[in-house]
Amino acid sequence: MTEARALDDQAVAAEAALLLEAERTRVAIEPITGRHPAVTIADAYAIQLAGRELRLARPGAALVGRKVGLTSAVMQQMMGVDQPDFGYLTAAMISADGATLDPAAFLAPRVEAEIAFRLKAPLAGAELTIADVLAATEAVAPALEVIDSRVADWRIKIADTIADNASSGHVVLGAWQPVGVLDLAAVEVSLEVAPEGEANSGTGAAVLGHPAAPIVWLARALHDYGGEGIAAGEIVIPGAVSRALPVAPGQRATARFAGLGEVSATFEAVA
Q: What InterPro entries does the record tag this protein with (predicted)?
C-alpha cells in the first residue's frame, strides 16, 4: 500500500512550478522537505507528475522513457537514502554518443554509467519477473546519465529527489544491440571523467542484482503510484552501476561496457 498524501493539490502544483522554474533559471531552491516536513512519498510522486504535465505541455515535448534511480548500494549511501525511486525521460533529455553538452544547462551535474533498455512490448503490473523484462526488451545500449539537482547543494531526502524527477538531467545513449546471450549482470563497466577527473568501476549486478531487476521494481512502483505501465518503444535506464562522478566544463565523461561498447559526452559551451 502506498503512503497517503499530506499536501493538497495547490501545494503540489506550487512545488512542481518551483522546480521547473529552478531548472529554467539555473537557480537552485531549498529542499521541499524543509518547507513541508510532513511531505510523503506519495506527495513527491504527485509533484513529479504535476511537473511532467507542465513539461509535456510545451510544444514538441514527448515522453520517451523512464529512469530508475538509487538502485545500487553505493548510490543509496552517497545520497543518504534507503530505497530506489523513478522518474521520466522526454525527447529533449536524450542525446547520442559523442554529444557535446552545455554545462550551463545544468546546476550541479554528475555522471553515471548505466545499461539502457529499449522495450518492444509493454510492461505493467506487480507480478513481473526479470525473465518478463528480458523477453519484452528489443535492445540494450551503453548509457551515460547526467544527474542534476534543482535542490541547492544536493541537500536532498528521498522525497526531494522524487519530486525533482528523480534528479534527472540528461541521457547519452550508445549503440543499441540485441540482448542475445550476454549476461547483463556480469557486464564489467568503467567510468572515467577526464582530464583531471575521477574514475571508478562496477558491474551490472550492482543494480538490485541484475540490470533488469530495477525495471521489475519500476513496473510495480508505477502500478502503485498512479496505475501506469511502461509502453512498447520506451527507453528505461535502471540506475548507476557505480558512484556518480562530478563533471565540470572542459571535461569528457566516458563509460566502457564489456561486450556492449562505450559511450561518451563532452561538457563544453555550445557556440
A: Fumarylacetoacetase_C_sf, Hydratase-Decarb/MhpD_sf
Mean pLDDT of the residues in the chain: 95
Give how many domains the chain has, as a whole number: 1
CA distance 179 to 66: 19
pLDDT tens sequence across 86-121: 999 999 999 999 999 999 999 999 999 999 999 999
> Which positions ≥6 away from 214 have C-beta within 8 Å?
68, 71, 84, 207, 208, 238, 239
Give the Cα-Cα-Cα angle 43, 49, 50 (nearest 5 degrees).
90
Decide: 134 and 212 in contact? Cβ < 8 Å: yes
Sign of the Cα torsion 94, 201, 221, 110 reads negative
70 touches 146 (CB < 8 A): no
pLDDT confidence of residue 1: 45
CATH of residue 210's domain is 3.90.850.10
pTM: 0.96
